[in-house]
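Now for a concrete sample entry.
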Amino acid sequence: MVGIYKIENKVNGKVYIGQSIDIKTRWKCHINYLNNGTHNNKHLQSAWNKYGKENFSFNIIEECDVEDLNEREIYWIDKYDSYINKNGYNLTLGGDGGRTIESETIEKIYDLYNNGYIAVEISEQLDIHIKTVHKYLKIGTKNGLCNYNAKNDMLKLHSKKIICLNTKRIFNSVMEAENEYNIVGIYECCIHKVNYCGKDNNGNALFWMYYEEYKNKSKDEIESYVNELMLKYDYRIVCVNTGEVFKDYIEANKFAGLSGKQSITSCCLGKRKRSGKNKKTGEYYTWMYYKDYISITDEEKHERIINAQLSYNEKSVICLNNLKVFHSPKFALQWCNNTSTDLIKMCCRKRIKTAGEDKNTHERLRWMYLEDYIKEFGEVTKTA
């Protein structure tokens, strides 16, 4: 299908307008680049990382003939006012490659290239799309302003020394390092298009930098940069109940007797409150990423453990005899005799007057849901 499409952020309403002669395939390309963190539109990529795939929609807004694509793209970008502002993510005004860049910027492209920079480095340095750099380098070559050669660019790219920031090992070229680790894409890491490339035998992300850039940075700058990246890609998992740390979800699964990635990682992401349980005590486990675990208080950790034991629709209850609050009827059972969770719930719903008795005084106990008590009498401070 030929036409104009729209990618919309459901959270803030910002849009990206694009054109394609095969919209379905183009959408797949967008998804692939965005999921891999390699989309050339930094604004759209940043929003995708922040809000997640589920908060973006893709719609076809107009079908048209191929010869009308440029005109209609310009029209829709103008209509949505989506050119790099509060309303959208488009980096150009649309049409055949967008707006013409300033002559001063073009001169910088030629100047940098003639001083030994290659196209990808110029793209990064001036924050210009790589295709635009290629376009003006070819024009400059025709007019005798530079001597651009794509093959020579690639040779230069792959002959520059690089360093693995994890191990401090220096390689003579990108190709040498990629062969060593059996990976591809290190140069994108070196130009800061992606944060890491490949993993070591322990599953840790590998970080790379051109050795020339590395030499120009201080020890503190390098250490701070690496620590920031390592924390970002630290996938260690903690069982909050026990405080045990696991290097990844696979080890955590073995501990909890679970299989699959989804349940524990969903717990770490806050999408569910528990996963697995202690077979001896019946206590439900709750999980966090280590980087999040170390940033919360002991009280917050205890609260997570308590919440993990509650049913998803469970309510806190209060005993009217002594104003003790329990996280659920199940927790209240530990404090009284001759009752059940169902009887306590019936009492909270005023279907019966009492449920159970005090273990020491044998006094019959009256109950309310805590939320109902607060609505009627105000806050209460006692908690069991």
In short: Residues 160-229 form one domain. Residues 219-232 form the longest helix (14 residues). The chain has five domains: 3-80, 103-157, 160-229, 237-309, 317-377.
